[in-house]
Amino acid sequence: MPIAGKLEVTIKIHEVPTDVTTKSNGWKEFTLDCGGRPVIVTVRPRMWIRLEEAKANYPLWVASITGQMGQSHGKGFVLTEPALQVFERKAKVAEAPEAPEAPAAPAAEPAG
Predict the structure, then answer these.
(1) What is the CATH number of the domain that holds 79?
(2) Helix, strand, coil percent values for the chain (each to nearest 5)
(3) From the CB of residue 82, how many other CB atoms can be counted at a distance below 10 Å?
(4) What are the start-end ranges of the E strands in 1-112?
(5) Is the model's pLDDT at 89 over the cut of 70?
(6) Helix, strand or coil for residue 93?
(7) Looking at the domain assignment, is residue 96 inside a domain?
(8) Tens digits of per-residue pLDDT, 46-86?
(9) Is residue 102 in some structural domain?
(10) Cα-to-chain-centroid distance, residue 53
(11) Where on the phi/psi map is residue 27: left (φ > 0), alpha (ψ -120 to 50), or beta?
(12) Percent of the residues in the chain that have a pLDDT greater than 90, as a whole number
């Protein structure tokens, strides 16, 4: 007999969605394209504010949206019970390869 499990989905984004609909009580609804599968996400106003603050305050950032797979629609689904975390990303600094050091010249011995 199978045991019960919980399926959670994590979606990562690095830009604020532009095609957004405002629902009742200020909730924001947008669609994310996850590998050709549209996912409808509806977030609370304070979660939306976190995304806008990340865009304004961090040059590079990533948001992690987690939730459960809800009702299917076409090839996609609705993300239910979404939670949002925003993280600042540090730019990767490309390190220049170090040039090999020239062999040290032999030290001259004092004459003596």
Answers:
(1) 2.40.50
(2) 15, 45, 45
(3) 19
(4) 9-13, 20-22, 28-34, 37-43, 61-73, 76-88
(5) yes
(6) coil
(7) no
(8) 999 999 999 999 999 999 999 999 999 889 999 999 999 99
(9) no
(10) 14
(11) beta
(12) 71
Residue-number span of the structural domain to which 53 is assigned: 9-88
Token output for 89: 């990303």
Structure tokens belonging to residue 11? 């979606």
Handedness of CA 7, 27, 56, 17 (dihedral sign): positive
29 C-beta neighbours (distance < 10 Å), count? 15
Cα–Cα distance measured from residue 50 to residue 46, given in angstroms and rounded to the nearest whole number: 6
> In the prediction, which pLDDT does 104 show?
59
pLDDT of residue 101: 61
Over residues 26-44, the pLDDT tens digits come to: 999 999 999 999 999 999 9
